[in-house]
Write a structure and sequence with these properties.
Layout (H helix, E strand, L loop, with lengths): L1 H19 L5 H9 L5 E7 L5 H9 L16 E5 L3 E6 L3 E5 L13 E8 L2 H5 L3 E5 L7 H9 L8 E6 L7 H12 L4 E6 L6 H19 L6 E3 L9 H42 L5 H50 L1 H10 L4 H35 L8 H53 L4 H64 L3 H22 L8
Parallel strand pairs: 1-6, 1-7, 2-5, 7-8, 8-9
Antiparallel strand pairs: 2-6, 3-4, 3-5
Length: 545
């Protein structure tokens, strides 16, 4: 793929310029190292026993995934083009396996987090930047619902929803999942497996029904439905066309991602070169004045940022309290439903998970994100590098860069915070199970219906109170952790800016001692490198940007 090599060349050239002038190139090198590993996720979701693994095996043309699994032995698996390697990510170690050992059997989600399969295959090579993610059935564990959103959505292009022709319905767990995808405007493709079990009319009816059901939830009329045959040699041509379509979109996503990374990585280098050229004719005494001016400016920025931090911390506490009240209120509103489910012996963990995630998501979107965006905007304005006032193009690019940083920070907040909240829901599920067990034992011998109902309601209240308590603590911890990470990035950015300005002034002082004709040649080279870096800074931007 030409665009991969094109961006490798750009980052190599930028690193070469940075190394030439002694500018820290670690971030550029890290980005360069990651280009070959760039992939866009395509998670495959559905309920247990819908034929997902058989379908993926058919795509690959080899039975790499076990189809003889139970809900307890299902583990998320990533499959992508590579050198026939298998990595098993256990809780305490990463085990490298041979491709000949596949399909792996006996793994459990309790001991193994993930399996990655790199496989050399013509079709996978055709969709080289697509990472197919086989996720276990959602009806096996609500944790997988959380993980499918929190872990994979930020770098996904589309989801494949697999439904068996045996049971062409959308269970509550899938409906809740689709509602979350709709919030992120994430495309969904429907794949009907075992389609040969229906005659032509039945299959058309099934396709129309699923398209209508899914389309209504995600609010899209253009939902694509593909069919996978189930007898003999499984026919997956329609599905392959979907994956090819997804692959065709990964190029633009790659370019957007790495154009932004190139602009960010080159900005300090551009400042250094501009400073070297702009102040080349200053005397030593003037340079010392510039140094003093820089020190005062950085001290002022530090004071201003500290004030913004304290102000934002106060706002964040208000947000946390508001979100806490929302979570508490939404959970308490479900008490009648939870009581009824407990009375009927229905598992309530999925219901509670759905309520908590929805409540947190709305709270983060409406309360936290707007304040976060303003905070990052203010900080960005404080630490934005000062380019020459007469360079309107540079000012526009700097503004676009700032806007993209603000947008990126805001977009990352919800997945990061929800991921942490999702982790706390796992031990809560055990607490719920224990309380439900105690309640069942208590009401077993109660014959009076009113007393029985009273015990059920008591158990429901206890469960809601415990979930509320732990969820709120988790939300506060995750928001605080996220703010700390943002503040650390801001601090690093300020330090980098100070270091690059100081280095440019020190190097200019060295230039003063050089003979004039040699210095002229150096400035000519600086200007040549500056033009190259300016091209990196404009990478991917249109005139409108």
């Amino acid at each position: 793929m030409e665009y991969l090599n094109e961006y490798k060349q750009k980052f190599r050239k930028l690193k070469e310029i940075q190394d030439k002038y002694g500018i820290d190139s670690a971030d550029t090198e890290s980005i360069l190292d990651g280009i070959d590993f760039y992939r866009v996720n395509t998670p495959v979701v559905g309920n247990f026993s819908t034929g997902k693994s058989s379908m993926i095996n058919a795509i690959i043309g080899k039975p790499l995934l076990s189809v003889e699994i139970t809900p307890e032995t299902a583990v998320p698996t990533e499959i992508y083009y590579g050198n026939n390697k298998v990595y098993q990510y256990d809780k305490d170690a990463v085990i490298e396996r041979r491709i000949e050992e596949l399909p792996l059997k006996g793994l459990t989600i309790q001991t193994t987090d993930l399996v990655k399969i790199e496989y050399e295959n013509e079709f996978l090579k055709e969709i080289k930047t697509v990472n197919i993610v086989d996720l276990p059935g959602f009806d096996t564990s609500f944790e997988l619902h959380n993980r499918a959103i929190d872990q994979y959505l930020p770098n996904s292009l589309a989801y494949l929803l697999v439904v068996s022709s045996d049971e062409p319905v959308l269970k509550e767990s899938i409906s809740d999942f689709l509602k979350e995808l709709k919030v992120y405007n994430m495309p969904v493709y429907i794949v009907i497996t075992k389609s040969n079990r229906l005659d032509d009319d039945e299959l058309e009816e099934c396709k129309a029904l699923l398209k209508k059901l899914v389309g209504r939830i995600v609010e899209r009329e253009d939902v694509t439905v593909a069919c996978v045959d189930s007898y003999g040699r499984i026919n997956v041509e329609e599905l392959k066309d979907i994956l090819r379509e997804i692959q065709s979109q990964t190029g633009q996503i790659f370019k957007n991602k790495y154009s932004k990374a190139l602009r960010t990585a080159s900005r300090f280098t551009e400042v250094y070169l501009l400073e070297r050229i702009d102040k080349a004719c200053l005397s030593t005494s003037r340079l010392e004045q510039e140094q003093e001016k820089l020190e005062k400016k950085m001290q002022s920025i530090t004071v201003d940022i500290e004030r913004e931090k304290n102000n934002f911390d106060r706002q964040a506490k208000v947000c946390i309290n508001t979100i806490r009240d929302r979570v508490k209120g939404d959970l308490e509103a479900t008490l009648p439903t939870i009581s009824a489910m407990l009375e009927n012996g229905t598992d309530i963990t999925d219901k509670i998970n759905s309520v908590v995630r929805r409540s947190v998501r709305i709270g983060i979107n409406t309360e936290f994100e707007p304040k976060l965006k303003k905070y990052v905007e203010h900080i960005s304005e404080m630490i934005t590098i000062e380019f020459p006032d007469n360079d309107i193009i540079i000012q526009n690019v700097t503004s676009a860069l700032k806007d993209s940083v603000v947008e990126e920070v805001a977009k990352s907040a919800l997945p990061a915070i929800l991921a942490g909240v999702g982790l706390i829901l796992s031990p809560i599920a055990a607490v719920i199970g224990g309380l439900v067990g105690v309640m069942a034992d208590t009401v077993h011998n109660i014959s009076n219906n009113k007393k029985k109902q009273k015990e059920v309601d008591k158990a429901a209240n206890t469960i809601i109170a415990e979930v509320t308590k732990q969820t709120i603590a988790s939300i506060e911890g995750e928001i605080t952790k996220y703010i700390t990470s943002i503040n650390q990035k801001i601090e690093n950015d300020v330090l980098k800016q100070k270091a690059i300005m100081e280095k440019s002034l020190q190097d200019i002082k060295i230039d003063i001692s050089i003979e004039e004709n040699t210095r002229a040649r150096d400035i000519e080279e600086l200007e040549k490198d500056l033009e190259m870096v300016k091209a990196f800074r404009n990478d991917g931007l249109t005139q409108e940007d």
